[in-house]
Design a protein that fits this description.
Two copies of one chain form a homodimer. With about 375 residues, chain A is of the alpha/beta class. Helix content of chain A is about 45%, strand content about 15%. Chain A starts with a strand and ends with a helix.
Chain lengths: ~375, ~375
């Protein structure tokens, strides 16, 4: 059986990048490493839409978020955490772990925190040191309006920290233009690598804050150490250097395509996925969906865990289920990075077959036809425009 | 030119493991991942010589050391740091970064901290919460007598934390038998993987201490989170799962050879390397050498940086130089992991050619012949014994 992984991370790695990962390990204090870092730092700026340094850390995305929190906010400060899902809650939990007061600004799972809510919280807590938010809430498939959040925080001294782990390189994320002070992503989503690296961009005003803060109780995640070394294209600690070398290929791929085309590609896939899901009689869970994944409710009376298990066992198609309280209640179809529209079609086809097998009334062909109509509209539109 | 990397980490990855690293990425919350973790945890226990859980963290070795410090020692406590090089000093720096008082017990670079020194410090500071030490000081090539250190700490309430990053899987490290409470290593040394993972074993008495400590100001490095998840063969954060999958192959390799045979193999290579270096007229820098690397002084009047550069440029042989104050003054020949005695012979041959070219008087063939005599003695000895 041919395996197809359409999870919202880790995502498939392009074949030529997989081969690059099989190349011999190289010394990490060398001219070769400096060149890798020079290339990667330049292309990361492009993908992040920032002129600032993007720091690669060897850790998961949570490590990148921890680095952001511990460097930007001194213990005892107050931070507003806009969250509407498991990953947004991670900001809150991180703040608490470091003795920072986290004020929650929330929305129910499946909905997004509205900019008006954040504006009200900012007005109510003028002493807050910053705002933490999530571009794409991977647990629910919701997109937050980070651009609007940035318009709220920019005129204040509050730093805006954004978890863009499943959003960056998928949907628009104009780090500098939107006033995002710290933007975090990971290697295993749109950057199309195995897990193992996080990336953290830091704005000038965030550096000013970091430099003014009392020394952070951290060592491995001390962003100043990374800044000082990266300016010479070195790293403070042994990096996952084969991942960084392979990242070059993926960043070149994104840069060649053009970041706005990358966003458009994901928007197209997401529109097709949503149309297909709806035609299968599934309700889209996210009120304001992010384009890196499509989350649908499991129909009443069906066992969501069994559904996904059958899909994998019978057809080799791996989707993700819900986590925590959403376990068994939603399915999450990832379509970011090296997953294309035909992979999405395959997933919809498999999903339909399993739903039929489980007795869920579906018109055979409805899902893939609906998705295909969305894809066709794009072509028709393009043809008409020429 | 055929490249040969004989650095004390990263070390070469076996060819079949490189190919494994090119296999498609897999989902990290899956039955496959549970099986990978089950296998890896079992074999790590074997390599660590411990019955306790060995926690894999996605970070560099320093991250593993930070996890050890921040979980074991509350801020304001006092810790004895036995150090005689850059990596031992990392313990001290880590402690300070977390508000822990670090009392140094030191020896000059090239020498080892003696057990009597540690015993005196332990007697002088009965209020210390623990001792941090380094099995193999990669900066100088020195081995510390961790077994003797353990005899000093075991009867006290002090925890013994050991950086075994370039020592574990190279030289004897009997974690449980020696009373090592927390033992740390990294993926990129004797475990023969690219950098990206650290491994931390934790003794029962260390867990008792960790559980009794006030909640540590950490999130990503909270060892309790790892313990709780690993008991179900899961991880708290997205792990570098392709590295863990590949690690299985390398751990099976070590287990098949037998850990004592692995130690003996490294001892043999190290004896050959030292004999070869001496025959080239080079002084061994380490008074009590570790067997994972051989460190020699650059002869008076020779430029050490130029020497290593020539060796790489002319012969494809990559050794490491000195760091910080030792820069240009020493050369470090790594022979751990997937580097064998014939690679060492190649390095000695190249080194001799470069020394001759730079005008250092050497009897041509002296280095390789001396090394070969050591290797031959082993065979003769074995033959005689049969």
């Amino acid at each position: 059986m041919k395996p197809r992984m359409l999870t919202p991370g880790p995502t498939p790695v392009p074949e030529e990048t997989l081969l690059d990962l099989a190349r011999p390990v190289f010394y990490h204090r060398s001219a070769q490493m400096k060149q890798v870092l020079a290339d990667v730092l330049d292309d990361l700026r492009y993908v992040f839409c920032t002129k600032n340094l993007v720091l690669p850390l060897t850790c998961s995305g949570t490590g990148g978020m921890e680095a952001a929190v511990v460097n930007c906010f001194a213990p005892g400060r107050k931070v507003l955490c806009a969250h509407a899902g498991r990953w947004g809650e991670r900001w809150r939990n991180l703040c608490r772990a470091f003795g920072i007061e986290a004020v929650s600004v929330t929305a129910p799972y499946g909905q997004a925190v509205r900019p008006e809510q954040l504006a009200a919280a900012v007005a109510e807590h003028p002493d807050a040191a910053g705002v933490c938010a999530t571009l794409s809430e991977t647990a629910t498939g919701v997109r937050h309006d980070i651009e609007a959040f940035g318009r709220i925080t920019a005129p204040t001294p509050m730093l805006l920290l954004v978890d863009a782990i499943s959003g960056l390189g998928v949907i628009p994320c104009r780090t500098d233009a939107w006033g995002v002070d710290v933007c975090v992503t990971g290697s295993q989503k749109a950057l199309m690598l195995p897990p193992g690296l996080a990336f953290v961009s830091v704005s000038e005003r965030a550096w000013t804050r970091i430099d003014a803060n009392p020394p952070a109780r951290t060592f491995y995640f001390d962003l100043k150490k990374y800044r000082d070394k990266l300016l010479d294209h070195e790293t403070p600690f042994t990096p996952a250097n084969t991942l960084l070398r392979a990242l070059r290929l993926n960043l070149k791929r994104l840069r060649t395509e053009g970041i706005e085309n990358v966003w458009a590609r994901h928007a197209r896939m997401a529109a097709a996925a949503r149309a297909g899901m709806r035609a299968l009689g599934l309700e889209i869970f996210a009120a304001q969906p992010a384009d890196g994944l499509t989350v649908a409710r499991v129909p009443e009376g069906l066992d969501g865990v069994a559904l996904l298990s059958k899909l994998e066992k019978n057809y080799g198609i791996k989707l993700a289920g819900g986590q925590d309280v959403l376990k068994g209640k939603i399915i999450r179809l990832g379509h970011m990075g090296y997953i294309d529209q035909f992979d999405v079609l395959a997933a919809l086809s498999g999903l339909e077959l399993v739903l039929l097998e489980m007795g869920h009334g579906v018109e055979p062909g409805a899902g893939v036809a609906a998705a295909q109509r969305v894809l066709a509209e794009q072509v028709t539109g393009l043809t008409a425009a020429v």
